[in-house]
Amino acid sequence: MQLSDHITHITGGGSDGWDTFYRARRMIADGIAVTELNIGEHDIRTHPDILNAMHKAALAGHTGYAAVPGTDALRDAIATRIATRTGVPTTAANILVTPGGQAGLFAAHHATCNPGDTALFIDPYYVTYPGTIRSVGAVPKPIITSPDTGFQPTLDALQRAASGARSLLVNSPNNPTGAVYSGQTMQAIATTCRDHDLWLISDEVYDTQVWEGDHISPRALPDMADRTLVVGSMSKSHAMTGSRVGWICAPEPVIAHLTDLATHTTYGVAGYIQDAAQFALGQGTSVEEQVAAPFCRRRALSMDLLAGQNIVKAVPSQGAMYLMLDIRATGMSGEGFANALLDATHIAVMPGESFGQAAAGHIRIAMTIDDDRYIAALGQVLDFAASCINQ
């Protein structure tokens, strides 16, 4: 008996670049203390008030089947949040609640791509992007960016890649690079989509973590609302990663079809969790600012530390909870550096190669442990890089 090509080809075969992460987890399982700077998981947990709202909703009986597209109250709250932030008229009819942002990415590609269609994405990329595209039968095609442009895609690169494609996936603020796409970059993305009749899928799960510049949702650009699907999430903004609450914001006919897809796949999100998400959004921006504050603070501390040496270079970190560091001066690949660092210091980071071709010779650091431990660990990373030069 053979499994379908559809399921066996999701990862594309070969290493997915996460070998260093798995090594670190095996070391931890063996009782070795490892400092993990590799995963985008908050070092604070969901606020007790949100958990209390979840508990109250569950005790009140909202534990049965919930409305598949999402409860009216949560969809209204999400629509209001989006309209307020972007200025684009948005109603509950534009919203589908999903089990996290990843489910939203899958559903968005299912809605826009036929089997065999070319689906574009920006390299460096979040690790699931190519597999998500393959999982709907489409063909992933990366658009390679450069550290020389802060990993922002250029109009020329976008236009060259777009011929014959069906969709384009973008992510700003960006994981893994921390890039916040400029107005010029977003205009280039919108121009390319209009010129080549592309669907645009905009992953905006880090929209509350912007340290420099402004977050621009491409849905707000001229003639883009009818061709853009925005994926959002409570995971990063409200430290609700395990609750699995995300959404897609899209034109009403798209949401109607996506509701059919949800009916035949996830069948919605638990009602008491949706009630907790509604409560969280109702607290305004104060909770979001509280969740984002440690990463903004650690970014500033990182820049001060990096300024005291000249071997490791920081890619401009304008948003999200990560630093992308250029370690090419050591003469090592990102993967080689990360593995040697893990062996020598028991500090785990992600090789840039885990996120595609463009970030080769870099490492990604997640700023997700308390300040003192974080700065001590980053100092060790810099000292290790210097030792590689002096060998």
Automatic annotation (TrEMBL):
Keywords, in A-Z order: Aminotransferase, Pyridoxal phosphate, Pyruvate, Transferase
InterPro entries found in the cross-reference section: Aminotransferase_I/II_large (IPR004839), AspAT/PAT-like (IPR050596), NHTrfase_class1_PyrdxlP-BS (IPR004838), PyrdxlP-dep_Trfase (IPR015424), PyrdxlP-dep_Trfase_major (IPR015421), PyrdxlP-dep_Trfase_small (IPR015422)
E.C. number: 2.6.1.-
Any Gene Ontology biological process: amino acid metabolic process
Cofactors: pyridoxal 5'-phosphate
Any GO MF annotation of the entry: L-aspartate:2-oxoglutarate aminotransferase activity
Aminotransferase class I/classII large domain ranges (all copies): 34-372
Catalysed reaction, written as an equation: L-aspartate + 2-oxoglutarate = oxaloacetate + L-glutamate
Family per similarity comment: Belongs to the class-I pyridoxal-phosphate-dependent aminotransferase family.
Protein name stated in the entry: Aminotransferase
Organism of derivation: Yoonia tamlensis
